[in-house]
Structure formats: structure tokens, C-alpha cells
Specification:
single chain, about 350 residues, mainly alpha, two-stranded antiparallel sheet, 20 helices, about 70% helix, about 0% strand
């Protein structure tokens, strides 16, 4: 019993330390006499702490989500809105514990719809808000029924975007949704646009993410309807240079398995298991099987099965073990689909 009490006390003391570190910034945000510049500094400072779960938990004790939403709704300064959302996005990216609080908050839909739909809001603000939602998608599938309500608005955002950054992040939003089978019927209408992005081979437009989304959406089907016309899956793959896209996807997979960005020097990193899942879906199609085999996929799948060995150390062993399990599962699925002669 003494050991348990000792551990609890240590945990409480640790959390108290985190609360002390964030408290001045929380108070600045809450204060009615704080200037917008002071609030920007407070949110920028908080953002630096959001990779730490104990700091995120401490922020939740002070109702950080409500504070951010109030800032977005009530403060006129656009940079202040952006830094508030950026701090929230950083927390959602690193720690799942805050995601339900973000989405289940009564103001969630109205806050984000307002940001996306108002023409006076700059695209950098819309993009920051979109990245925040995309981070939540990755971590909390149980919240997708709420997030799916934003799909038509994000679709409009994709078509109206004037910057490559915003358009690319719209693609990533749809790709993250496509990872989960229950979301696919709700985003299949985007297949034509995703195919076009994929066909460009333009990394800055998130062509790799578009290829992953397309693979998830068409991998188990024989035909797709685009603009009220039905096309065979094989004809789509030919029309949109799927061979080139798959070869690029393989290169991205190899770089990711080696812990590198892709293209090298771009600073863009992908999640290995998400690429592998897309490969497992698309290789159900015979034409894609042949392309993947020619691209020498088998050694990469072997690397995937051996990645995160028990001897390897990691700063985040919990996420490492989770990702290792998922990666190996999809690597095995891909091997099965590649060798299954009954696949389409």
C-alpha cells in the first residue's frame, strides 16, 4: 500500500509542476484586461508544452478547449485566433485525451463552420483549423460521426482554395477519413478530384495522400461513379496514371520505413502503417499487383514486418508498439492480397 501511495503522490506532484508552468499563460488568456498581443504570446508559449501529456492534462483542468473557442469567437485579432487553434491542434496531434473534448464541445461545429465559411477569414486561419480537425480524425474514430458533418464544407473549401497549402490539407483531411471503412461512402464523391491530384504527382499538393485515399476508396470495388457516369476501376487506373502514382507511393513507403522524409529534404513525413494499409487495399486489383511487384515491394514488406524490433529503443514506446502492431497487420494483408489469385 505504501508503494502505491508513493507513486500517486509523485504523480500529483508532477502534475502540480505542470500546472504551475502553464498557469501564467492560462491566466493571461482568461483575463479581460489582457491585450491581443499578450494572448498571442500566451498561446504561443502554451503550444510549446503541448507535446507533453501531463501539460495537456493540466490545460484540460483549466478548460483549455473552451478558452480557445472563446478566443476564436470573441477576439478580433486573426493571429490570436490562429495561435489559439494552433495550440489546440498541437495537443490533438500528440495526445488523444483532448480529442473528445474538442469535438464533443457544444461549440465545435459552429466554431469551425464559421471559420471555413466566412469569406473574410484568410486561408491560413482556415488551414490551421482544418489541420486541427485532421489531427482529431487520426486519433479518435469514435468521433467521426460528428466530424462527417463538416465534409460538405471541407469539400467547398477544397474547390475554393487559392493556396496549394490549403488544398493539400483538404486532401489530407479526406485521406485520414478514408482510412476508416465507415467513412468511405461519405467521401466517395471526392474520388474524381482526388484522382486528379494523384495524377499530378505533385508532392506539394499532397499527391501521396491522394493516392492513399484513392487506394482506400477503390481497392475493393470494380467500378466507380464520377459525375453521374460509371467507370470500371481498371479504366480509371489507366486514365489517371495509377502506375506512376503507385511507384511514387512505393518510394514514399521506403523512405518512411527508413525514418526519412519524402522527397528527401522536403520535411514531409508519412505514417508507415497508413501507406501500407493503402497498398493492401489497392493490390486487390490485378493491374496494381503487377505494378507493385515490379516496383520491388516484397523487400519493403519484409522491412515492415521487422520494423520496431524489441531491441530498438524509442522515446515513445507506447505509440511505437501500437504503430508496430498496425504496420505488421497491414504488411501481412498486403502479402496476402498480392499472392491471392482470387483478388479482382
Amino acid at each position: 500500500g505504501g508503494v502505491i501511495m508513493s507513486n500517486n503522490n509523485e504523480e500529483e506532484n508532477h502534475l502540480s509542476t505542470q500546472e504551475n508552468e502553464i498557469y501564467p499563460f492560462i491566466q493571461t488568456i482568461k483575463s479581460s484586461i489582457s491585450s491581443d498581443r499578450e494572448k498571442i504570446y500566451a498561446y504561443r508559449s502554451l503550444r510549446e508544452y503541448m507535446s507533453s501529456e501531463s501539460h495537456v492534462i493540466a490545460c484540460l483542468k483549466h478548460d483549455i478547449v473552451s478558452l480557445v473557442y472563446s478566443t476564436v469567437e470573441d477576439v478580433d485579432d486573426l493571429l490570436c485566433k490562429e495561435w489559439a487553434l494552433s495550440a489546440l491542434s498541437e495537443a490533438a496531434f500528440y495526445h488523444h485525451v483532448i480529442c473528445p473534448v474538442i469535438v464533443q464541445h457544444p461549440s465545435f461545429s459552429s466554431i469551425f463552420l464559421n471559420i471555413f465559411q466566412r469569406s473574410e477569414h484568410p486561408e491560413y486561419l482556415k488551414d490551421t483549423a482544418l489541420v486541427c480537425i485532421t489531427s482529431v480524425i487520426s486519433s479518435s474514430p469514435e468521433l467521426h460521426s460528428i466530424i462527417r458533418l463538416l465534409i460538405p464544407t471541407v469539400s467547398d473549401l477544397f474547390y475554393s482554395a487559392t493556396t496549394r497549402v490549403l488544398k493539400a490539407d483538404c486532401v489530407r483531411f479526406f485521406n485520414n477519413l478514408s482510412v476508416f471503412e465507415e467513412n468511405r461512402p461519405h467521401i466517395i464523391f471526392m474520388i474524381g478530384s482526388l484522382l486528379e491530384i494523384m495524377g499530378t504527382g505533385d508532392i506539394e499538393l499532397a499527391s501521396i495522400s491522394a493516392c492513399c485515399a484513392v487506394s482506400n476508396l477503390i481497392g475493393a470495388t470494380t467500378s466507380i461513379t464520377i459525375s453521374s457516369k460509371t467507370y470500371s476501376t481498371e479504366s480509371i487506373l489507366t486514365s489517371y496514371q495509377m502506375t506512376v502514382a503507385l511507384e511514387q507511393l512505393i518510394l514514399a513507403f521506403e523512405a518512411t520505413l527508413q525514418g526519412s522524409d519524402f522527397p528527401v529534404g522536403s520535411g514531409v513525413y508519412y505514417q508507415d502503417w497508413k501507406i501500407c494499409m493503402s497498398l493492401s487495399n489497392i493490390c486487390r486489383l490485378q493491374a496494381c499487383k503487377e505494378t507493385l511487384i515490379k516496383a520491388n515491394i516484397f523487400p519493403l514488406l519484409n522491412m515492415a514486418l521487422l520494423r520496431y524490433s524489441s531491441d530498438e529503443q524509442s522515446e515513445d514506446i507506447v505509440f511505437q508498439k501500437k504503430d508496430s502492431h498496425i504496420l505488421r497487420r497491414y504488411a501481412l494483408h498486403t502479402l496476402w492480397n498480392l499472392t491471392d489469385n482470387s483478388s479482382k
